[in-house]
């Protein structure tokens, strides 16, 4: 199925290569792998390896498969300076020859499928003593492998379009690659859902793992949430061009089923604990988080992306400022009455806008006051306040961040080590991402907090339900699901916001906006833009806010000017809706081949 998979892998040699065997069995490496008995492969010392290694190929990091970038930098939610992959992407340079991150994704997920299939083949053959590994253990592990196998397939189809369902680890002499055919998106989605339905019906998995020792293992709530997401994508315009409402009905039913099954075992955290979703020790059994990465991405969110947030406040930026939010994302955070700050963009650059009543960017105004509370949780803006934290020498009571032009340093340092040091960390948009980061990042490259990528949380399932209900014109159901998210954030019920109408157009606009706000910087926007087929309307321009102080200090009168981020924005054609396969893989798999947009 890919380069790595096309190499000769016997079941045993793959285990050795991937480190499946225990240290005890590794002593036998001198023995030819095809001579090791099956009893040695599936005994108590090695059988747990089959379970553990099915998780290896999940996207455990924020940037691993995207050329070291946050995936948001390939959308209209964030800007990453420099001439790296995001610049090439937005410049329209994606091609079969320059395929950016497709090869990494393709290889990683197919290898994950293979590991899951090997687990499903050998776990049932366990020879481990029943007092050490019970039949209940094995049934649970088998169902974990089934769910993870579905998950890997879903990652493949949401990136590359429909691919066949592979339910066995083919041997080295398999010669049927050319006969594999690309199914329809509905066919593969239906198959994936049937696999999840079997796991749900079996009931071998707990809805919620009960101890912090198994926080990194699949539970039944993941199966429900994944089913909801698969059917949402299957019903979306990209994969449902005729607008078949029966697909949306299936998506709505799946989201309802998920919520009915997992609530109240899972529940939304109150707004006062919202930040804990993103900066909590991974082993804590968070009530809202269904599943998150076991890998702490603290260093990636800080060091690897160059997000050393000490120097701020410039209209220019180099890559060391990291992925910074765009003004377009900030504009999505409502005023407290539920209206948007911006009524319309009046030019192609988004630098001329019509503002709604109650919002001002005039000198002396504060555009960030009186806004949806999630803005302060998700975005660092001019005047952002943090509470006391241990990283400030002398125990200062508060850290306040300014991002106006010319402000070269913040936190407890009085001056940068050099002007160059300050310049290279400044944001071009006037903002920094706050989600997955705490105040400690402003005073230290160490950070001192956990940042584990969230795969599924309850809020997303409610938003899935709102969207699917709206598409089948169950407007009351859509409103009810949407309001659960809005009210948690402290925003008014949607029916009370200015200009409300109980229509599909109005509600869908607000549901999509709510999804963009609630799930920002969680890896969702890239795929939402594609399944909704809106990249030609949303990726054309991004802006920032240039802020100046009347006296060049923190107590001056601030003025605001929207500025265009002057980089090409050409990733708006149909080809950018789906990734092409690596060239050699398309040749090896003619029955699958390239997606239609790339043929």
From TrEMBL:
Q: Does the keyword RNA-binding apply?
A: no
- Endpoints of the signal sequence: 1-23
Compartment(s): Cell outer membrane
Please list the residue ranges annotated as the RagB/SusD domain. Answer: 287-596
The UniProt keywords, alphabetically, are: Cell outer membrane, Membrane, Signal
Looking at the record, the residues that make up the SusD-like N-terminal domain are 45-232
Question: Could you tell me which SUPFAM superfamilies the record lists for this protein?
Answer: TPR-like
The principal localisation class reads: membrane
Q: Write out the similarity annotation.
A: Belongs to the SusD family.
Tell me what this protein is called: RagB/SusD family nutrient uptake outer membrane protein
The record lists the organism as: Pedobacter segetis
């Amino acid at each position: 199925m890919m380069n790595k998979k096309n190499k000769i892998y016997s079941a045993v040699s793959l285990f050795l290569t991937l480190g499946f065997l225990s240290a005890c069995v590794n002593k036998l490496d001198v023995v030819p792998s095809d001579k090791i008995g099956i009893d040695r492969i599936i005994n108590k010392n090695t059988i747990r390896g089959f379970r553990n290694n099915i998780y290896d190929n999940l996207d455990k990091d924020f940037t691993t498969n995207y050329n070291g970038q946050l995936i948001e930098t390939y959308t209209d939610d964030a800007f990453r300076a420099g001439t790296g992959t995001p610049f090439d992407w937005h410049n329209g340079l994606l091609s079969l020859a320059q395929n950016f991150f497709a090869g990494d994704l393709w290889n990683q997920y197919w290898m994950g499928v293979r590991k899951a299939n090997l687990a499903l083949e050998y776990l049932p053959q366990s020879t481990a003593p029943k007092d050490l590994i019970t039949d209940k253990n094995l049934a649970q592990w088998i169902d974990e492998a089934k769910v993870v196998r579905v998950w890997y397939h879903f990652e493949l189809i949401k990136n590359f379009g429909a691919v066949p369902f592979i339910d066995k680890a083919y041997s080295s002499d398999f010669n049927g690659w050319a006969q594999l055919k690309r199914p329809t998106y509905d066919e593969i989605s239906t198959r994936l859902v049937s696999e999840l339905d079997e796991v749900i019906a079996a009931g071998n998995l707990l809805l919620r793992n009960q101890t912090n020792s198994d926080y990194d293992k699949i539970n039944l709530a993941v199966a429900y949430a994944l089913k909801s997401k698969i059917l949402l994508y299957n019903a979306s315009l990209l994969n449902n061009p005729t607008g078949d409402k029966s697909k949306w009905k299936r998506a709505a039913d799946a989201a309802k089923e998920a919520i009915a099954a997992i609530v109240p075992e899972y529940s939304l955290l109150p707004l006062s604990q919202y930040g804990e979703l993103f900066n909590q020790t991974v082993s804590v059994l968070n009530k809202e988080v269904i599943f998150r990465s076991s890998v702490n991405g603290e260093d990636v969110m800080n060091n690897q992306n160059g997000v050393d947030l000490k120097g701020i406040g410039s209209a220019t930026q180099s890559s060391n400022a990291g992925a910074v939010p765009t003004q377009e994302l900030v504009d999505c955070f409502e005023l407290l009455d539920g209206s948007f700050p911006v009524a319309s963009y009046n030019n192609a650059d988004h630098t001329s806008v019509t503002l709604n009543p109650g919002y001002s960017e005039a000198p002396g105004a504060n555009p960030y006051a009186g806004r949806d509370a999630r803005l302060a949780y998700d975005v660092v803006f001019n005047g952002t306040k943090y509470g006391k934290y241990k990283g400030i020498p002398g125990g200062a009571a508060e850290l306040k961040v300014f991002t106006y032009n010319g402000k070269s340093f913040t936190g407890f340092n009085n001056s940068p080590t050099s002007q160059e040091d300050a310049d290279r960390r400044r944001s071009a948009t006037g903002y920094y991402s706050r989600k997955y980061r705490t105040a400690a990042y402003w005073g230290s490259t160490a950070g001192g907090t956990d940042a584990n990528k969230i795969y599924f949380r309850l809020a997303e399932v409610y938003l899935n339900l709102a969207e699917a209900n709206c598409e089948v014109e169950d407007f009351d159901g859509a409103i009810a699901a949407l309001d659960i998210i809005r009210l948690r954030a402290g925003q008014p019920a949607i029916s009370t916001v200015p200009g409300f109408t109980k229509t599909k157009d109005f509600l869908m606009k607000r549901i999509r906006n709510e999804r963009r706000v609630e799930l920002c910087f969680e890896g969702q926007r890239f795929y939402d833009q594609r399944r909704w087929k809106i990249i030609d309307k949303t990726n054309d321009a991004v802006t920032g806010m240039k802020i100046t102080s009347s006296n060049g200090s923190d107590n001056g009168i601030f003025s605001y000017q929207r500025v265009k981020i002057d980089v090409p924005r050409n990733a708006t054609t149909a080809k950018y809706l789906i990734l092409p396969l690596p060239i050699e893989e398309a040749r090896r798999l003619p029955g699958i081949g390239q997606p239609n947009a790339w043929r």
